[in-house]
Amino acid sequence: MRYYSSVLDALFGVPLPMANTAKVSIARTEARARRRQQLIEATMKCIGRKGIGGTTLADVAGEAGLSQGIVNLHFQSKDNLFRETLQYLAEEYRSKFEGVLERADSSPAASLMALMELDLSPSICQPMKLAVWFAFWGEVKSRPTYRKICDEIDRYYDEVVERLCDEIIKDGYYPNVTANNVATALTSMTNGLWLSCLISPQSWNRHDALDAVRCYLSVVFPQHFRRSGAT
Amino acid sequence: MRYYSSVLDALFGVPLPMANTAKVSIARTEARARRRQQLIEATMKCIGRKGIGGTTLADVAGEAGLSQGIVNLHFQSKDNLFRETLQYLAEEYRSKFEGVLERADSSPAASLMALMELDLSPSICQPMKLAVWFAFWGEVKSRPTYRKICDEIDRYYDEVVERLCDEIIKDGYYPNVTANNVATALTSMTNGLWLSCLISPQSWNRHDALDAVRCYLSVVFPQHFRRSGAT
DNA sequence: CAGAAAAATGAATGAGCATTCATTCAGAAT
DNA sequence: ATTCTGAATGAATGCTCATTCATTTTTCTG
After folding, report:
1. How far is it, in rounded angstroms, from Cα A153 to Cα A157?
2. Tens digits of per-residue pLDDT, A66-81?
3. Residue B51 reports pLDDT greater than 90
4. What pLDDT does residue A26 have?
5. Do A67 and A39 meet the contact criterion of CB atoms below 8 Å apart?
6. Do B131 and A141 touch (CB under 8 A)?
7. A109, A139, A206, B64: which has the fewest C-beta neighbours closer than 10 Å?
8. Does A88 touch chain B (CB under 8 A)?
9. Cα–chain-centroid distance for residue A221?
10. CB contact under 8 A, A141 and B198
């Protein structure tokens, strides 16, 4: 069995043969990571259901089927738990986003459409998940750390979308728009559609939302997008 | 001096000559209304600064320069205060919105542009105000009352924008878009631009935001909107 | 001006909750 | 089998507020 001489080493992935310092087995490290993830997921469920203000550590522990003190054991404090939850959420989003980029074959137009479809897919665009995002956005002004995390993922998104738009514009010669304009419009649009989905879940529907995006794309980039269907 | 026989009558504006029930003078009623508004404005400042979770009644009272118990005296409970604050916020927005509609002379295109400019004007689009909106949106999922208030103003907004788009489409014969598509896109866009303004206040700027909206309008409704400037 | 009613105060109360920690439990190492 | 270590528990602690209310101050009325 391999050992890490400490949790720190474990994080840096430096396996050591048995040493005389405190030993932490890989199995333990993994178990700990799993527990943390379990707690983070419980936290998201609670925030989705009761909001950030309404979520107590007892709620989270209960949701995870564990005891009172468990959160402080693994996260030291409530603040920490929430910050890591936001980080997890952002990371999760980023990985789905990158997954789509990798899968979408070649053409920038196809990639762009695939990204828009991702944003409006049930995997991301469901009231419960959105509620968590909005709960954190609602705290952005008073919590610089939250702002930083959100800002980072936002910039990344914007950058990718703008690059795709740029390629499309170069490819199609569209004199009336700039990549910056279109990217701003698209990112805002998805964010705004999320708000509608959260606020009017009964009347909101994926189809209309996607249609609005497709309509926009078909009008700005007519050579690359047809009204009903990508590319 | 005129009297109301009770606060309820006062709200309904029914002045009565002195009766043998408890009497409330108009001056008192107005003073009370002013105090309530003062407290609501203090609440918005606090929420903007510390978030909903971080705002205590002591904060609000302090911000207003009054004492501990004042909020409960005027609003009965914290919950009430927050709900009425959201209502006030929505009402304030609606009145600005209607003000623009009345002022904008005649043409639907001019009205639409004026509305977009309002949404991105400093009066509405400043981090402090937006933080309050987002704080409430963040609680929408767990507070049905908040959802209802937000939903109502949202629907109103959507309805007006869609009607304007409809008139523009009829006027200009635009076969490739529907009023619903464009209205959805526009409302989402402004909501999304608010999020960017909140999250990246340093890099965000009104000019780019407006430009993205103008660009969109000039592309969907080319006969009604030119690239740099309305109608 | 006196008396009454309303508004405002702020100390006291107690509920709710994050955090602590002595104790128990589980499983790996020898 | 025994020991040892880290994980987990949950009762206890203490702090932060919302809320109450007896008292004071202000405002109105005749």
Report:
1. 6
2. 999 999 999 999 999 9
3. yes
4. 81
5. no
6. yes
7. A206
8. no
9. 28
10. yes
